[in-house]
Amino acid sequence: MNRSVDPKKVNSELFTLTYGALVVQLLNDLESVEEVNKQLDRMGYNIGVRLVEDFIARTSADKCYDLRETADKIQAGFRLYLGVSPSVGGWGPAGDEFSLTLDSNPLAEFVELPETCSNMRYSAILPGIVRGACEMVHLEVTSWFVQDQLRGDPVTELRVKFVKRLEDSVPPGED
Amino acid sequence: MAEEALFEFLHNEIVAFIIENEHETKKEDGGQNAVSKLERIGFAAGYRIVERLTREWPRFKDELDTMKFICKDFWLAIHRKQIDNLRTNHQGVYVLLDNRFRFLANMSAGKQYLESSPKYLAYMCGMMRGALSNLGLNCVVTAEVTHMPACKFHIQVQRS
């Protein structure tokens, strides 16, 4: 008889299932799907702001001098916290934007979107995390999904665009 | 472990959001409603995760066997440790003691912030209720903290 569980697997499932339960609760509590997207993004931002500290402490990461280094760090972050390695690519001509492509989305592992939620951004917490984390290291970025497997696309693609470098004196912005 | 940090931050955000959302619509039920929402989120997650944990397991012999599972393997899978103490009166009441409960561990070691501890326990109470419910036991789970970060969970099996 097999009485063992894989703790690593459980942990990611715990996160996924908790996230799912949260989304359901948000859909109950808030009036519109847009409102839910916004709320998830905001929560992601709050998590990112704190997660970046944990990330730097764990990996003793150095300051990034260009966006390519930042992209590598974000990729490392996905590997560390979600156990997936997105591929980095799709660089814009000015080198100020890139895509993170995920073959499978760990957040959406057990999810099917009903028809009524067709404009739902189920994993909206991820771009929020990226934005919050970058802001704490003085990079203002915007981040959004261009492809989502839950909406029938072949892969999940997260786009990240550099906006500007934040100066030291600027206090951390409220959402 | 790294993924734990992510989960803990998510839990904090859920608590913060639910409580904040409740302040805005406070007229109806006061604060009680917020805690029950947290409990419901936990219930849904617990109900599902236990199904995956016990997929290849033999059937539990009896109620005590199920409780032992909760204290050992379930707790180990979720919190990377076992429950420190399990007590029962053999009439359907179980008391589980965790000396260093994860959601409180980074908060304080003593009486500071004691009054805000209940909202950080509701999720886990729901989670245990959900897990037990999927294993065929209808329970009421409550938690009690007198000295952080130790936490006592009371499980009362409802028989009818």
Description:
- The complex is a heterodimer of chains A (175) and B (160).
- Chain A has 175 residues and is of the alpha+beta class.
- Chain A is 45% helix and 16% strand.
- In chain A, strands 1-2-4-3 form a 4-stranded antiparallel sheet, with helices on one face.
- In chain A, helix 2 (33-59) packs across helix 4.
- Chain A is globular.
- The model of chain A has no long low-confidence stretch (mean pLDDT 88).
- The model of chain B has no long low-confidence stretch (mean pLDDT 88).
- A 4-stranded antiparallel sheet of chain B has the order 1-2-4-3, covered by helices on one side.
- With 160 residues, chain B is of the alpha+beta class.
- In chain B, 41% of the residues are buried.
- Chain B has 5 helices and 4 strands.
- The radius of gyration of chain B is 16 Å and the shape is globular.
- Chain B is 49% helix and 14% strand.
- Chain B has helices at residues 2-24, 32-53, 63-79, 102-105, 122-134; strands at residues 85-88, 93-98, 139-144, 151-157.
- Chain A binds chain B through residues 1-3, 5, 7-8, 10-15, 17-22, 24-25, 29, 39, 43, 46-47, 50-51, 54, 58, 80-83, 110, 125, and chain B through 1-7, 9-11, 13-14, 16-18, 21, 37, 40-45, 48-49, 52-53, 56-58, 73, 76-78, 80, 123.
Number of strands of chain A: 4
- Rounded to the nearest angstrom, the distance between the terminal CA atoms of chain A is 52 Å
Assign an overall shape of chain A.
globular
Taking all Cα atoms into account, the compactness measure Rg of chain A is 17 Å
Structural class of the secondary structure composition of chain B?
A: alpha+beta
User: Rough shape of chain B?
Assistant: globular
Q: Helix fraction of chain A?
A: 40-55%
Overall number of strands of chain B = 4
- N-C termini distance of chain B: 42 Å
Major sheet size, sense and barrel closure of chain B: 4 strands, antiparallel
* H-E string of chain B: HHHEEHHEE
- Strands of the biggest beta sheet of chain B: in what spatial order? 1-2-4-3
Q: What is the N-to-C order of secondary-structure elements of chain A (H for helix, E for strand)?
A: HHHEEHEE
Strand arrangement within the widest β-sheet of chain A reads 1-2-4-3
Mean pLDDT of chain A: 88
| Strand proportion of chain A | 15-25%
Q: Runs of chain B with pLDDT <50, length 5+? A: none
The value of Rg of chain B in angstroms is: 16 Å
